[in-house]
Write a structure and sequence with these properties.
It comes from Nibricoccus aquaticus. Belongs to the PEP-utilizing enzyme family. The chain has 897 residues and is of the alpha/beta class. The protein folds into 5 domains: 160 residues, ATP-grasp fold, A domain (Dna Ligase, domain 1, 2-Layer Sandwich), CATH 3.30.1490; 89 residues, Up-down Bundle (Acyl-CoA Binding Protein), CATH 1.20.80.30; 90 residues, D-amino Acid Aminotransferase, Chain A, domain 1, CATH 3.30.470.20; 136 residues, 3-Layer(bba) Sandwich (Glucose Oxidase, domain 1), CATH 3.50.30; 294 residues, Phosphoenolpyruvate-binding domains (TIM Barrel, Alpha-Beta Barrel), CATH 3.20.20. The chain contains 38 helices and 34 strands. Helix 5 runs parallel beside helix 7, helix 6 packs across helix 7 and helix 13 runs antiparallel to helix 14. It is elongated. The two termini are 36 Å apart. The structure holds phosphoenolpyruvate and magnesium ion (MG). Magnesium ion (MG) binds next to helix 34. Magnesium ion binds next to helix 34.
């Protein structure tokens, strides 16, 4: 079996399509080599070796060694150097991890591997640069000691142990602070000695001198890092399966640190924050690539390269164009210039904000680089919500005080209490506080805190620092490199513009402009929301709004599945229609009684213990409902509305607190004891499986009669007023055909009466929810009565999994952690289990009633993966909350392309 794929000198074993096997980095290095770009030679150890490694007690396949040797030979041939050569310039390599997608938490780079006590002397001789050679060796021992041998900070230590050795050396030797670049070759040589002693002291082992031992050790560290905590946290957040594994890339070193004609940089072919078509990135003269991303020295904008190295800059611009043309997407690149010669070390599709992604896609269709279908596929549906996220309220922000500026690294507006440490941010966020994570610079250790925070502010680091990339991808607001922010971790304070802010004080940041404000600032809706919902003309002129509208036009062109909304009020219906919904898929009629005094009438109805009392209460409810329905039909402008009859889980509606009970007793003018008694009588151990849904109407048909009358009278009135009401009456929680028959008979009976009374024909239909496994399994019988099905996947999930939707929070975390379920099944449909019930019901429904209208109205209707599943099984529509309508439309279009 082939475990090692080489590349170099315009030839490569692999190519860009082989990301699963070679990881993203390895596949693209092969691809760049193939298209003739200057890539130092190297090879990839495949992800299958990672899988083997974990399946076989952390050992390697026996045939690997020979393949590694062949890989190294290939590099040696191209470079003209030998690995481990102690007499001539030795071949040194960089070792990097490479999963399918780049992943924070994975082992970083080890540079200069291959140096030892002999080869370092050869390097001195070949370069005649003693300082450079020993500096490389010193750095190598430090990186290798840290990530491979685990010489790291222990509990109670303030600094990295290698840094402590350096500090002590400087102090002992120079008795003052000097910078690293002042260290002489002899100093570096001494540090090498001390570093090795440190390794021996901490690990009990001698630092490996044999380059082959070094290489195997480094590969093992990459594979080992696949299972470290940070990588696991990241995978969980992004639902990356642990089986994927990582690849290892070994590449011949090129040196950006040989002097002032060398340097390293990272860049995006277009601006990943706002989408503008401009070359965007940073570089450092006389530095290795790691120095740029580490955020230790603040780098220069890449455009400045034009002044200092015009030839390399021109070459880089050519590479930029070639890459975009070839990969047909914005690329994120790493490069090194060694003595005026350009080398490409990496390319990948650039991570981007939702706004930038939207602009890239729109621009690239215009530039004829991609088709509109590709543009639709390029915008991740779940990221679309970022575009709808709030911005600062314009009038408030004018009054706010700007106290610092930094780089705009993740757009949007965030306001919150500041915390200086990831763990404390998590705790505060769990308490419901809005948190801003404020750090000197963020490192992968801060990931949990970044996830918990509304926004991230750093004092140091560029727009391509790891922190900025991660923030952008998560859609977090981020301002980085705000040099005016001075942080004291021990005192838990930030001094900005002469003002001291303590932990828990409010700050606000604008990640679109890079501005930091004192205090709390009110946020306002995004231009897209203002343009769509409030018909704001200014907002409609913005490029963001126009690009969004264009994207949605393309979506409509592609979509088969239509998108409705779950709405209980005319206002919600109007919003959803502005977002492009084509009707209501679920009105939860019990929700119409949450407001004001209405809950009293509802409670009166629930608590009634005889028919007469119940009918009195129902008579109070009827006009409320009729008016509401009228308003909804009016807002819908002829679009259909699925009205679901009462389904009040009793525990949500009963007055439990003593004051509520007293209050209700007063209003109803009955003794409180009577209410207490009735509440006690109605108490259920398992209310989610209790007296809910159609069970209510089966026992008390008068409830169904009242609701049918309210809907149908409103429809008749609306139709007369010219609004073309199309009610689809929906009976909940049906498991038996007979349940539905009884309820439907009542609806038809009332409909006949109302049509006669109002002298108007009403275009209504009656169907059912499929949300009980028995209903799904007997859907053929149920379809004899039901004119449509709507999948109530909240209850269907709860009943199929036997997991209470109200109580699963206490254990579901452990389920995702242990990968029993990939995602929360109440958020993203369990396609294998619940999905099977959906499929069965679709098939059986179609058998009885070919072409039966099929929808979904559970929470899953707004989840991109679930929407794609719904498309696959052939549903007619999905229904979700108004603000998720754009997300569902995009996902539906993507499913259809
Ligand atoms: C469902 O069960 O999926 C549903 C939409 O109904 P409810 O959430 O009101 O139970
Ligand atoms: Mg339900």
């Amino acid at each position: 079996q082939k475990y090692v794929y080489t590349w170099g000198a315009a030839k490569a074993d692999g190519d860009g399509s082989m990301k699963n096997l070679l990881g993203g980095k390895g596949a693209n290095l092969a691809e760049m080599t193939r298209i003739g770009l200057p890539v130092p030679p190297g090879f990839t150890i495949t992800t299958e070796v990672c899988t083997y490694y974990y399946a076989n007690k952390r050992t390697y396949p026996p045939s690997l060694q020979a393949q590694l040797e062949a890989g190294v030979k290939n590099m040696e041939k191209i470079m003209g150097y030998k690995f481990g050569d102690a007499s001539n310039f030795p071949l040194l390599v960089a070792v990097r991890s490479g999963a399918r997608d780049s992943m924070p938490g994975m082992m970083d780079t080890i540079l200069n591997l291959g140096l030892n006590d002999q080869t370092v002397l050869a390097l001195v001789k070949a370069t005649k640069n003693e300082r450079f050679a020993w500096d490389c060796y010193r750095r190598f021992i430090q990186m290798y000691g840290d990530v491979v041998l685990g010489v790291q900070k222990k509990e109670g230590e303030d600094h990295e142990p290698f840094e402590t050795v350096i500090e002590k050396f400087k102090h002992d030797t120079y008795h003052k602070d000097i910078v690293d670049s002042d260290l002489t070759a002899a100093d570096q040589q001494e540090l090498v000695k001390r570093f090795k002693a440190l390794v021996k002291e901490r690990t009990g082992k001698v630092f490996p001198n044999d380059p082959w031992d070094q290489l195997r050790g480094a590969a093992g560290a990459v594979f080992g890092s696949w299972m470290n905590d940070r990588a696991i946290v990241y995978r969980r957040k992004y639902n990356i399966p642990s089986e994927w594994g990582t690849a290892v890339n070994v590449q011949a070193m090129v040196y950006g640190n040989t002097g002032d004609t060398s340097g390293s940089g990272v860049a995006f072919t277009r601006n990943p924050a706002n989408g503008v078509n401009e070359f965007y990135g940073e570089f450092l003269i006389n530095a290795q690539g790691e120095d740029v991303v580490a955020g230790v020295r603040t780098p220069e904008p890449v455009l400045k390269l034009k002044d200092v190295m015009p030839k390399s800059y021109a070459e880089l611009l050519k590479v930029r164009a070639t890459l975009e043309k070839h990969f047909k997407d914005v690329q994120d690149i790493e490069f090194t210039i060694q003595e005026g010669k350009l080398f490409m070390l990496q390319t990948r599709n650039g991570k981007r904000t939702a706004a930038a992604g939207l602009k890239f896609a729109a621009d690239m269709v215009r530039e004829k680089l991609i088709t509109w279908e590709t543009a639709v596929l390029r915008n991740p549906a779940d990221q679309l919500e970022q575009l709808l996220a709030p911005i600062f309220d314009l009038s408030e922000v004018k009054k706010a005080k700007v106290i610092a500026t930094g780089l705009p690294a993740g757009p949007g507006a965030a306001t919150g209490k500041i915390y200086f440490n990831a763990d404390r941010s998590v705790i505060a966020a769990e308490k419901g506080e809005k948190v801003l994570l404020v750090r000197v610079e963020t490192s992968p250790e801060d990931l949990r805190g970044m996830i918990a925070a509304e926004g991230i502010l750093t004092a140091r680091g560029g727009v391509s620092s790891h922190a900025a990339l991660v923030a952008r991808q998560m859609g977090k607001v981020c301002v980085c490199g705000a040099a005016g922010v001075q942080i004291d971790y021990d005192a838990k304070t930030a001094t900005i513009d002469g003002q001291v802010f303590k932990e828990g004080d409010f700050l606000s940041i604008d990640g679109t402009s890079g501005t930091v404000y004192a205090g709390q600032i009110k946020t306002a809706p995004s231009e897209i929301i203002s343009g769509l919902i409030s018909d704001d003309k200014e907002a409609q002129k913005t490029e963001k709004f126009k690009n969004y509208v264009q994207l949605m036009k393309w979506c409509s062109q592609a979509t088969k599945l239509s998108v409705r909304t779950n709405a209980d009020t005319p206002e919600q219906a109007r919003q959803a229609i502005a977002f492009g919904a084509v009707g209501i898929g679920l009105v939860r009629t019990e929700h119409m009684f949450f407001e004001g005094d209405r809950i009293d009438a509802m409670r009166e109805m629930i608590l009634a213990d005889n028919l007469a009392d119940r009918e009195t209460a129902l008579a109070k409810l009827l006009p409320y409902q009729r008016d509401d329905f009228f308003g909804i039909f009016k807002a819908l402008k002829g679009f259909p509305a699925t009205v679901r009859f009462l389904d009040p889980p009793l525990h949500e509606f009963l007055p439990h607190a003593k004051e509520q009970q007293m209050d209700l007793a007063r209003k109803l003018n009955i003794p409180v004891e009577k209410i207490m008694h009735r509440v006690h009588e109605l108490h259920e151990f398992n209310p989610m499986l209790g007296f809910r849904g159609c069970r209510l109407g089966i026992k008390y048909p008068e409830i169904t009669r009242m609701q049918a009358r309210a809907v149908l009278e409103a429809a008749a009135d609306a139709t007369k007023a010219g609004f073309k009401a199309k009610p689809e009456i929906m009976i909940p929680l049906v498991g038996f055909k007979k349940e539905l028959d009884l309820q439907v008979a009542i609806v038809h009976e009332v409909a006949a009466q109302v049509q006669k009374e109002k002298k108007v024909k009403i275009a209504y239909s009656v169907g059912t929810m499929i949300e009980i496994p028995r209903g799904a399994l007997t859907a053929d019988e149920i379809a004899q009565t039901a004119e449509f099905f709507s999948f109530g996947t909240n209850d269907l999930t709860q009943t199929c999994l036997g997991m209470s939707r109200d109580d699963s929070g206490s254990f579901l975390g452990a389920y995702t952690e242990n990968e029993i379920v990939k995602k929360n099944p109440f958020a993203s449909i369990d396609q294998t289990g619940v999905g099977q019930l959906v499929k069965i019901a679709c098939e059986k429904g179609n058998q009885t009633r070919p072409g039966i209208k099929l929808g979904i109205c559970g929470e899953h209707g707004g989840d991109p993966d679930s929407v794609k599943f719904c498309h696959k099984v052939g549903l007619t529509y999905v229904s979700c909350s108004p603000y998720r309508v754009p997300v569902a439309r995009l996902a539906a279009a993507q499913a259809a392309i």
